[in-house]
Amino acid sequence: MEEISLNIELPDGRSVRITATPSMAHPEQCTFTVSEPLLPGGSAYFAERDQSRGSILVDKLFDIDGVIDVLVNNDVLRLSLGRDALWEEKAPLVALAVRDALASGGPLVSEAVVESMLAPEEIRRRVQQVLDTIVNPAVASHGGMVSLLDVSNNAVFLEFGGGCQGCGMVSVTLKYGVERTIRDEVPEVGEILDTTDHASGRNPYYAPSSK
Question: For 139-183, how does the pLDDT look when each residue is reduced to its tens digit (9 = 90+)?
């Protein structure tokens, strides 16, 4: 599926634009950019419906058959489907879920979820511990290394080095290895970004000036 745009109308007359962009690297994933804020200034990852804790938007997205997980990040959604992802069919259903959640007037992401988010310093400490004790000992055998560059709110910025840098398998390693490990150990983490892939994306990492 190529990128498509959908317009939805809210009961108060507002028009909301949603742009769906399937991932080339991971066909089971699709990113939806919404013209209305969903979780301003933060991100939250839901590996299953039970983690919703009353989040109207998340509940409605999990109502869509086949949705495996949900990431809400500012004005962006990232959803994963099963192996045979048909985003042409699911994109309009996602748009309807967003419309209904916005129209409800309730919490798109519940206060309980927001209040459970860890401070950036605690996320940094716990993610660094995961990298030191689990991730890097594993990738070291391939000459690689994963570094934690920064934490912004609860979004984590990683850098792949050594044998990992420039490797065609880095995106696969991030998705199915490093990301899964970090989420298992630190479930409060929101978005996880590889700074190489996202240098010019919606959440760019700006390295501190050396001057």
Answer: 887 777 889 999 988 899 998 877 665 555 555 656 568 888 999
Q: Are residues 146 and 162 in the same domain?
A: yes
Phi, psi (deg, nearest 5) at residue 28: -80, -5
Question: Tens of pLDDT along 98-140?
Answer: 999 999 988 899 999 999 889 999 999 999 999 999 999 988 8
pTM: 0.80
CATH number at residue 190: 3.30.300.130
Mean pLDDT (the chain, rounded): 85
Q: How many domains does the chain have?
A: 2
Mean pLDDT of 28-52: 92
What number of CA atoms fall less than 13 Å from residue 44's CA on the CB side? 24
Q: Which residue has the tokens 């590996």?
A: 47
Residue 51 CA: distances (Å) to CA of 11, 173, 188: 29, 25, 11
- Distance CA(126)–CA(108), nearest Å, equals 27
Helix or strand holding residue 129 (H, E): helix 120-130
103's CB contacts (< 8 A; 6+ apart) are 10, 11
> 81 and 163, same structural domain?
no
Last residue of a domain, one of 93, 115, 137: 115
- Phi first, then psi: what are they for 124, rounded to 5°? -60, -45
Q: Domain limits at 186?
A: 120-194
Is 80 exceeded by the pLDDT of residue 200? Answer: no
